[in-house]
Amino acid sequence: MDQQEDPSGRDMFNAAGTAFAGNDRRAPLRDALERWGAFGPGQTAGRFWPVACVALEVTQRCNLDCTLCYLSETAEALHDVPLALLLDRIGMIESHYGPGVSIQLTGGDPTLRSLEDLEALCREIRRRGMRSCLMTNGVRAKRPFLVRLAEAGLDDVAFHVDVTQERKGYANEAALDAVRSTYLDRARGLGLRVLFNTTVFAGNIGEVAHLARFFRRHAGEIALASFQLQADTGRGVLRERAAAVTPDRVAEALAEGTGTSLAFDTTLVGHSACNRYTSVVVAGAEARCPLIHKKLAHRLIDALTKHEQIDDAHLAVRATLARVALMQPDLALAALATAARLAWSLRRGLWQSRGRVHRLAFLIHNFMDAAHLDRARCESCVFMVATAKGPLSMCVQNANRDAHLLEPQPIETSEGRRWWDAATGELQLAGAHMAQPEVIAKHRKGRVRVAGGTD
């Protein structure tokens, strides 16, 4: 049952986005998950971290025109947020969630912003002890561009590639493997963690297994593959999701493509209706899912996160394992026995790969339609957006983007406080009329372009 009371989302600055107070930054998210019955033994949100990631939208402009796009009808007419405001928002994110948080530099496509601005953002994120991720379609993210950002402190790059982007000359996802391979080449050797995002709809649901096979072959280069289900939100020309496009169907296709059983219910990432997560270990042509050992995984999660927040899960888990082994030797022995059985099941692949093992994670995002926001899911959100008023659930932001983007944003100047207007790019006095963006022909995209014709 839908529980949306305010389509603008103004009353949904949820518990996960409230200002931090106290010693445990995980508490607001954990409280929200508990309130909605979503804080089970496998829940990582509110245990390992206070939020999965926070999107920092650096531009609303994009150089593609996807048939499924969450941006608003007026996005192309909006001016880029001043760098000073973006730097302030990075500070706001740290004050809410602390160090170790992943900040997604996104938009639109962030590569349309100046490289110097992106470098400044990466340096500030690194200075504050957080992680930065460039979310891009990759068109402008050439090798020299990524080299510069890596040198400035960029941690991750997430390439979004799929047929909804209607790239010329690529009829299906299999053809787009050439683009994915090119992007891997660009990022190789730069020390960047590489992710891939795919929007799933009726036009490519039949190729998800193929994509899983591609990602498995490149498990040593790709850390995570995210599959984002179609949602009726934003300016995209596609609307209602086909009945065949479900999290269950995507999970089945991923299992088919990886060639092994996948456990998507062992570890949870926020609300189970929103996100499903699993991982595989790959050796040669063999792949296995270590999360099928559900009880053991839950015992390890409890032991690793019982006492303190883990700001950097990858580093802290390894550092904490020794302590767990000392305090709970029976748990350590059970984990070692399970690891030995896993290695034995991978023995053929280990022979092929000369002992090299890689880990690959899969994440399924089930985003909500703009007109059907569920309060339980909004208040349990782990994927937030940094707005002028603080962190906001990504689905709430997408449901009525203009209301949030056109909100006057205070900025301190030598002449005192002024309010920045996204429609004009100018600073206004308090109480001044904020302009409405004009969508001229060259800015038309999505539904506006279809309605207005091709220019």
What would you note in describing this structure?
The protein has about 450 residues and is α/β, with parallel strands linked by helices. It is about 35% helix and about 15% strand. It has helices spanning about 25-35, 85-95, 115-125, 145-150, 175-185, 210-215, 245-260, 295-305, 315-325, 330-345, 345-350, 375-380, 395-400, 400-405, 445-450, and strands spanning about 55, 100-105, 130-135, 155-160, 195-200, 220-230, 275-285, 285-290, 360-365, 385, 390-395, 410-415, 415-420, 425-430. Helix 2 links the parallel strand 1 (about 55) and strand 2. Helix 3 (about 115-125) packs parallel to helix 4 (about 145-150), helix 6 crosses helix 7 and helix 9 crosses helix 10. The longest helix has 17 residues, at about 330-345. Residues about 1-10, about 10-15 and about 310-315 have low confidence and may be disordered.
Would you spell out the secondary-structure blueprint of this structure?
Blueprint: H1 27-35, E1 53-57, H2 83-97, E2 102-106, H3 115-127, E3 131-136, H4 143-152, E4 156-160, H5 173-187, E5 193-200, H6 208-217, E6 222-229, H7 247-258, E7 275-283, E8 286-288, H8 294-305, H9 313-327, H10 329-345, H11 347-352, E9 358-365, H12 375-379, E10 383-387, E11 390-393, H13 394-399, H14 401-405, E12 409-413, E13 416-420, E14 427-428, H15 446-452
Parallel strand pairs: 1-2, 1-10, 2-3, 3-4, 4-5, 5-6, 6-9
Antiparallel strand pairs: 7-8, 7-9, 10-11, 12-13, 13-14
Helix pairs in contact: 2-3, 3-4, 6-7, 9-10
Produce a short descriptive summary.
This protein is an alpha/beta fold and 455 residues long.
